[in-house]
Design goal:
It is built from 13 helices and 2 strands. The chain has about 300 residues and is mostly helical. The chain has a two-stranded antiparallel sheet with strand order 1-2. The radius of gyration is 26 Å and the shape is globular. The two termini are about 30 Å apart. Residues about 220-275, about 280-285 and about 285-300 have low confidence and may be disordered.
Length: about 300
């Protein structure tokens, strides 16, 4: 009866962990919707999604070696599919330079690196030893991924700002680590339970930092609408006579509409004003940095949690 209870509890934690992990997998969707809408990646990095894909592939390989581990097989199969969709979307709208870098990253990291691990471990004749080797590789990789956000935490302490940390996302990641820790503990799998201890610890630290520095955070977002025209004077160049007593004339105005700056100006003035207001439009069109950084940051931590 006790064994049945443990199996039931392991299944419950595994199902809840799968649901939470799936929701965290969907965290970057707003970012990729914005990329699709703007038809540009705007310099967003592809590394978080490549890392997430590699981790899902590695954990999926471990689950196949372990056998009878359908929870891990299911969520990591879904993870591989979602990360592949993200990367394909990124490649479509990335700049040529970014596309080349991402291609090299995928070849070196997700093909050669992963292939080397698989081929080298397949040659190990003992199945149990092979499983342990892959398990330790998974733990080492998870620890390295969990250590990555230390730089962000240091920045939060230094600036006393949590602008780029999301409490709901940190809470979801912490819950995800808890679920998979107990799942690994109940099925007596050190390689599943151990990395999530670190994930739980980092999640708690993140939430504490958000609660401590939330009221001290100064918004670092983009300027509000019309802020450029309201706060920044526009300098209009006026040609000066070419003689010995040359005089430099500078006219400063603060128009409320783009058309006001054009009235009474020559063609060069129109170019200057158009550039200023084009810059304002570009700034207004960009997504909030908080959502972008938080989604990428959460994706990396999510991958280390299972």
């Amino acid at each position: 009866m006790g064994a049945l209870d443990l199996d039931l509890m392991a299944s419950v934690f595994g199902i809840m962990g799968t649901i939470v992990a799936f929701l965290v997998y969907l965290a970057p969707l707003p970012t990729f919707y914005w990329i699709f809408k703007k038809k540009s990646t705007q310099g967003f990095p592809s590394i978080p999604y490549s890392v997430a894909l590699f981790s899902a592939m590695l954990t999926l390989y471990y689950a196949f070696l372990k056998t009878n581990c359908m929870m891990l097989v299911a969520i990591n199969s879904i993870g591989c599919f979602i990360e592949t969709v993200y990367l394909v979307t990124f490649m479509i709208y990335a700049t040529p330079k970014s596309r080349i870098f991402t291609t090299k990253l995928l070849i070196l990291f997700n093909i050669l690196g992963y292939g080397t691990i698989v081929l080298s471990t397949i040659l190990v004749p003992n199945a149990l030893l092979r499983l342990k080797i892959v398990g330790w590789i998974t733990i080492v990789f998870s620890v390295c991924v969990f250590a990555a956000p230390l730089t962000i935490m240091r920045q939060v302490i230094r600036t006393k700002s949590v602008e780029y940390m999301s409490f709901p996302l940190s809470l979801s990641l912490t819950l995800c680590a808890i679920m998979w820790f107990f799942y690994g503990l109940l099925i007596r799998d050190l390689f599943i339970a151990a990395p999530n201890v670190l994930g739980f610890a980092f999640g708690i630290v993140q939430m504490i930092m958000i609660l401590v520095y939330r009221k001290k955070t100064t918004k670092i977002g983009f300027l509000p609408e019309q802020s450029l025209s309201d706060q920044m004077p526009i300098t209009t160049r006026v040609p000066a006579p070419a003689n010995d007593n040359m005089t430099l004339a500078i006219v400063i105005s603060t128009p409320t509409k783009p058309g006001d700056a054009k009235k009474g100006s020559d063609e060069s003035d129109d170019d200057v004003d158009d550039d200023d207001y084009d810059l304002q439009k570009q700034l207004d069109g960009l997504p909030k940095g908080k959502a972008i950084v938080a989604s990428a940051f959460g994706l990396i931590l999510r991958r280390a949690s299972i």
